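Subject: G-protein coupled receptors family 1 profile domain-containing protein

B.,
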Amino acid sequence: MTAMEAKSGFDVSYDFHPCYESSNVSKTLRRTSSTMCTLFYIFLGLLSVITMCGNLLVIISIIYFKQLHTPSNYLIISVAVTDLLVGIVVFPLNMYFSLSSCLYYRDFICKIRDSFDVILSTTSIFNLCCISVDRYYAVCHPLTYRSKINTGIVLVMILMSWGVSVLVAIGFIVAEVNQEKCKENCFSDAVLEKVLAPVLSFYLPVIIMLYIYLRIFLVAQRQARSIQDTAKSAVNINNVERKATKTLAIVMGVFLMCWLPFFLCFSFQLLGGVSVSVYETLNWLALSNSMLNPFIYAFFYRWFRSAFKMIISGKIFQGNFPNTKLL
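Prediction pasted inline below.
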């Protein structure tokens, strides 16, 4: 194992990126302009554009239409702003200063890239966790929902999401710098970087979200049975339960599909031998969650779809639509 492999935990013994070539003799890295590299950048560029456009639609919709000025939607706009910055900042930085190049040239720009990556990605995850808390009170405690979740509480949630993310990023960078300074006794810093940081920024929020959505699902089942038993409603309980299951499966399934493989791989770096190509692929899969969030948390609602249609068609420039009733 080379010194670079031992230090980073990655297996870099072969050409690992479509846009770079490494020399086993001179231990240098040079860019290539192959067809595969061009297609790779076009694909990632499209992901970035879709991410920016989708989240811009969400932001404009909530800001423009007064009907959407609610505490719940402030959380959604926080997610959209975070994911928009992922599309604007993290995507381009990760495209040009990839993990492959940063393993060879660990300069200041690579640390900046890592900082934005950690802060924005972690904030996006925390915002999704806050949305699950909001949904829990809306479904499980509807009578006290407006008093428990108001604009002030939501602003505190948003500030905490950003604040904790910045602290996690600072800890991550400090641990990384310490690893660069020390020669052999870096195990504690490696544990901090590859175990504690993922626990705080991913595993803990995931456990909280899974627990909350399970509670929501169970309460929704009880409410459906109560409606059927007390009101003799014609509601088909099987359809209600199926819809609730499908909604929660989409929310958590897509989230876990995007993020879990990356964080598992990130943690396993401690054992060494993680392929750079695998790690980078999983990193892009995780970042793609920022592109999917507008579809999951906004397109799912009919009033957002109506707002999007008005924006895309240009109707908002043809008259006074802020007070328009959205379905």
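The beta strands are 10-11, 20-22, 29-31, 274-275.

T.
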